[in-house]
């Protein structure tokens, strides 16, 4: 797990996709934008209230990255992009029109654009560029860059293509203003989320490299691109290391979103293939300064190495208020064995979360029971009110029990529970035409055994997958876990070449256009989309549009309840678990503001290197003490 801005940015992508602007200020220039009411800062945002505005600059943040890399272009399906780049957003290199807030959901503040406005019918939005915005080569960021970036990203990036599906044109209306035009009215979040557009340098990408070869933005590259953000690539070793250097004359350093942040002079990422080796590197120091821990077992048992005991490594829990992602075993409907909903329900019945949580996770995890966990958008009970009205339109295409039973996941709370749920799974298989013969679950017509393979990318995946595999085998399923290297894992998931894979679907407290990339029929066959399940359901497509074109907050909540309920009753994913905390362990070389943003838990960009602490650690561990 990498940290710094890459870590923060990944959390924000999970946490702040959006949906639902207020019309009160339509067609007036606005700075801070919010989809769920006014920002706590109002329209006079000066800086985040948790940062140290006098935080010193300097020092090096060392991080470990998994696998390898072969590209500095993260916005295409080809290649494995290097640490510091992200497929949605700007990462360390590029700025976006506006920057998603770290301490509030569905809120953005000015960056390349200093303001935006939109008409009251939500048919377009205009962004006004900050005159000071410039590239690292000193050239200004122009409306041509914005328009070119929009067209390139919509054509080549699966995420941006679905996110901006209703945006038809980007047109310069002055030397500082770009108008984005929509093909439908009433898409309430679309004006705001155009601020998520990353801006790329048109003149660089359309130019030639040192050898005179024309660059191609649709292909991978290992030529360090020109950027605009706080860092640029200082050096790299193909596939094994990349070093980022802070730009001393960064144009936006004094903007409110940047004050007291991006304090490390250098960010170094070292690639290590083996997760255990990465862990050992962290315990010894030098390669990994901050470890974002995901393992309950390790968090509970493994933090007893010498540096912890000496107080040189700090272990700390940061609570978060952001919505919890749906994490689960994704069942690939492109495979024929998963196309029957009864089979998918049976596979859900087999997962014994309670035993896993007790024996493997030290009771620290909570079962996830909604795609919008931790928000008012999560469905519960039976459908009623406006949600019921929405679902009634599709009653003949939905499971009858959706209207009469509350959705509940199996609870293995007694010795008898395992027998009960495994029998229920066997009964569902029987209804779908499968029977147990000689201890094997076989197709009643062909005699072929039911098989599934869980794809993993690290030996640690065995902790999650093996108990489930063992339960599946109890009902005669030929189940197995296959570990592949990280690059192969990325390529196979991008091309949907798997039976089952662990997926994570991050949501926000205001969902919208991004839902197309998760669930829509169009995304199902698009390599690199987040529709890992391969959902092609007209009802889901209709509900996604219902969410996107919700008329107000109450309408959005009802539509999202309906979408959540249909997804749950379709059993596309075997839900796993979540924790409303971020676990960080870090070498004691940092200055950290007393307060951290409760929404995302921790903003690593607000930390800084304490030179005295760093020097003391270096002397101590270099000398072998």
Task: Identify the notable features of this structure and list them briefly.
625 residues; alpha+beta; five-stranded mixed β-sheet; 20 helices
Written account of the structure:
The radius of gyration is 25 Å and the shape is globular. With 625 residues, the protein is of the alpha+beta class. The protein has 20 helices and 25 strands. The longest helix is centred in the last third of the chain and has 18 residues, at 553-570. Strand 16 and strand 17 (440-443) form a beta hairpin. Strands 19-18-20-14-21 form a five-stranded mixed β-sheet. A four-stranded mixed β-sheet has the order 2-11-10-9. This is Microcin C transport system substrate-binding protein. It is found in: Periplasm. Residues 109-523 form the Solute-binding protein family domain.
Task: Note the topology.
Elements: H1 4-15, E1 33-34, E2 60-66, E3 98-100, E4 107-110, E5 113-117, E6 124-129, H2 143-156, H3 158-163, E7 167-172, E8 177-182, H4 190-193, H5 202-205, E9 231-237, E10 241-246, E11 266-272, H6 275-284, E12 290-293, H7 296-301, H8 306-309, E13 313-319, E14 326-331, H9 341-350, H10 353-359, E15 366-367, H11 385-392, H12 401-404, H13 415-431, E16 434-437, E17 440-443, E18 451-456, H14 461-474, E19 478-483, H15 486-494, E20 500-505, H16 515-519, H17 521-524, H18 538-548, H19 553-570, E21 573-575, E22 577-578, E23 581-587, E24 590-591, E25 608-609, H20 611-622
Helix pairs in contact: 9-13, 11-19, 18-19
